[in-house]
Amino acid sequence: MAGRIRAVIAEDQRLVLGALSALLQLDGSFEVVGEAADGEAALGMVRELRPDLLVADIEMPGLTGIELAHRVAARRLPTRVVMVTTFARPGYVRRALDAGASGYLLKDAPAAELADALREVHGGGRVIDPELLLEAWMGDDPLTDRQRQVLREAGEGQSAAEIARRYHIAVGTVRNYLSAAIGRLGAANRIDAARIARDKGWL
Fold first, then answer.
1. Are 68 and 54 in contact (CB under 8 A)?
2. Which of 34, 59, 133, 191 could crosslink 45 through cysteines, CB 3.0-4.6 Å?
3. Contacting residues for 203 by C-beta, under 8 A, at least 6 apart
């Protein structure tokens, strides 16, 4: 296996995880050293195995792909992170790059294109669809990190009290964050705000 690009794949859909792993294993350039079905497990593998690449989906249990990229960068791990997702949302692209990701690719890309892109990232480059990159910088995310966290929880049906307990803040503070997010997004209520933000890739 000497000389191959060592990769960990993080993907919560088992069928897609298996397909991505098989695709890379068939290419002589890669060795898949780990497969994770959630973000926490992926971070553990990256810290233990120190792979060259982490190929991660955006939406996963535990930690999202964007949160994973941020943690890898914050710990100064040598692994380069590439998002491979179905979500062509400019907000996700912007947040992924801000978090330290080196690539943002769509799952419907041809297999050869995906492999070439991963080799490019391993070589020190960045690979992002040009159209997505342009759109990402045309619209700014209006939410703060805390507003995003609270709105994500509310959109999943959590009450203000439950959110307050999770983040160790007052219930009134949670309501203030939600009110601010609703106002910034021009939404009718917290559910509408969560929908708008998710559609834009801001959650």
1. yes
2. 34
3. 148, 151, 152, 155, 194, 197
